[in-house]
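Reopening this one. Same input as before:
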Amino acid sequence: MARGSGVDERARGRHGVGVSGTSPQLRLDALLEGLQEQVHEVRAVQTRMHTLLDAVVAIASDLDLGVVLQRIAQSAVSLVDARYGALGVLGEEGTIKQFLTVGMDEEAISRIGHYPRGEGILGLLIRHPEPLRLADLAEHPQSAGFPPGHPPMTSFIGAPIRVREQVFGNLYLTDKQGSAEFDADDEAVLRTLAAAAGVAIDNARLYDDARRRQRWLAASNELTRSLLSGAEPATVLETFTATVREMTGAGLVTVAVPVGDRGELVVEAASGPRAGEVRGLVLPATTLGAKVFASGETITSEAVSADPRVEGGSASVVELGPAFLVPLGTHEHVCGVLQVAHVPGGPLFTDAVIDMVIGFGNQAALALEVAEHRKDAERMIVLSDRDRIARDLHDLVIQRLFAGALSLQSTLGRVADRPKVGERIERVVDDLDDTIKVIRSTIYALREHDRTHLGGLRTRLVEATELAAEALGFTPALRMTGLLDTAVPAEHSAHLLAVLGEALSNAARHAHATAVDVSAEATATALRLRVADNGCGIDPAVTRRSGLTHLKQRAEDLQGTFVLSSNEPAGTVIEWVVPLPSGS
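Same output, byte for byte:
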């Protein structure tokens, strides 16, 4: 029995079964499997570290801020294996002003509608900028839910991005792929990426600011050179608005200058696809632009066309989104208002851009003021010459002519016996008297010329529309373009104002209109007036139209045309066009 037992034990020993009941081979296999798992973990960590390093290099390899932000969001999604990701850039008052997404196509984004502003979990991360991990978004007490069309999301991880100790924005990632929720390793990787992203964002912003400053400086130098070289301020303002629009990427840029003495402004220059719709538009004293002009303070708006503070102006003519308005000049002496606006849905303007535009605008205002002083000096030289010519005509020419006439009259008694000679002398004396009258009227015209320009045509057009507001019950919309104050002779101005007064009177008395649009334009060759209303139109039964006949006669007196037509969908349109004399 004992011998047999020894044989069985040896047999068991040969088959690798120990006394303890565990095979050494099995223990070795278990150790190898454990070692292999550790190797896999090390390799996974190594791969993740390489991926993290590649992500850091990728986001730091470009200095364009928009590209950097998109790469940060894409890298975050890749590093933590998230399905969806976003980077929210914070604006004023802790709201999200820019939202970049990863993992959603354009169709999904359009279904959602608008990007979040910073409520719910996103707002929690804004108020408490520390990393946050959640197994299920919906279970958190501060969850605000999802808007209609938003894809379902469960697990969540977020981390703030700091730039020089200031929170620039937050990374938001949802739906961990291959796992129920994000773990501590994901949080550590996201922290590291956020730190590297802060440095990359800071570098991109510094580069962007330096490049923008260089372009602003070049534009300022060109603007100053143009003004001081004698270019027309109106032309320079058009170039100025185009430069501001190019630098800011805005949809519409306008410059409004004062007209009249009641706080109105007129859009003197504009740049953008729809600039023609607002150029020359008169802004009442209730508009944001007029308020900026009166206060000298900058005003910003997230959606200027929907802003309750807006009453008329370009934002009521063209649909505009984020915008800011800055005064041109010093706080004590504002010479105009600059408005910079995006299209609806566009991003908010950064503080750096606003500050840069303010600086550029102040330089432009200074250059415009210097140019205006130069024009004033030139005007004073002209006026001095006029005074000198008038004085010389009065003191020298008229006195000599008068003395000559007296001498001729004194000789009449000596030629009494020669009647024909006396008649000839009397005709010469009469001619001298007529010449003296002509010279005196010329002197009067020379001295009165400047007075007639104190109240220019633009100012009188504004006064005419304001006067008509008493009868109409509202102020007509007025648009003025071209050199109305300098290129239109006094006779044409008088006819234009008379035609406008008659047209506005007809709109109030007969048409019963609720809206009237007035447009006055002076080109190189013609003066145009267009008055359109939405009234009841012209009654066919009325045959006596003396007022309209007078308007037509005024056009024909200046070799122009007068056209009366229907306005769509209701009302009438008056178009009065007369040629301008060359060199006026």
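So the earlier flakiness isn't reproducible anymore. For the record, Residues 230-349 form a domain with the Beta-Lactamase fold (CATH 3.30.450.40).
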